[in-house]
Amino acid sequence: MQRTILLCAGGSFLMAFAGALLAVTLAMPHPVGAQAVGPGSGATGRDEHLAGSWLLTTTAGSHVGTTTALVTFNDDGTLTESTFGGRPEVTLTTGHGVWVRTGDHTYAITLFRLVRLAPGDQNLERVQATLTLNATSDGVSGPIETDTFDEDGNISATVAAAAEATRMAVVPMQ
User: Fold this and answer.
1) How many CB atoms lie within 10 A of CB 156?
2) How far does CA 60 lie from the centroid of its chain?
3) Which of helix, strand or coil describes residue 145?
4) For the purposes of burial, counting CB atoms within 10 Å of the CB of 2, is it exposed (0-12), middle (13-18) or buried (19 or more)?
5) Which of 11, 44, 50, 89 has the most other CB atoms within 10 Å of its CB?
6) Nearest Cα to Cα of residue 32 among 99, 91, 83
7) What's the DSSP call for residue 94?
8) Tell me: the pLDDT tens digits for 84-113?
9) pLDDT per residue over 121-155, tens digit each?
10) How far is CA 164 from CA 29, 37, 76, 138, 139, in A?
11) Which CATH architecture has domain 49-167?
């Protein structure tokens, strides 16, 4: 069986851009000190660490409003984020990124995701945040900023917001 794959101009650009992003990511050094606990240690909520899954809420201005996301911080310093965003006409992919401990109970994160604002208008978004873990390790909060890049790699829009997250816990079945 023979398959024919057609790529439109936007798809070719997206594939080239994704390939370039992958090359840059692979060339970056690994984050140092991303996590003090080893793989499989599990989040207990009683010690200081970010690894685990979180329910995140961001609050921006009236043009974006409040959004909800699911974020998982892995032991190896990587993270994955899923959200619908704050506007129904915008399509977002899952975010992929990295995190690093920057001080006592403080962490920096950077993630990237693809965004479609309209048919044929596909861009890259970068999300950066500085998060502070609370004393019980079951909540984080801090400023978050999202930059949208145009097809030439220039920042075309920036949205600042406040983020708050609660660590997910197992809820036993009744």
Assistant:
1) 13
2) 16
3) strand
4) exposed
5) 50
6) 99
7) P
8) 776 666 788 899 999 999 999 999 999 999
9) 888 999 999 999 999 999 999 999 999 998 889 99
10) 29, 23, 23, 11, 7
11) Beta Barrel (2.40)
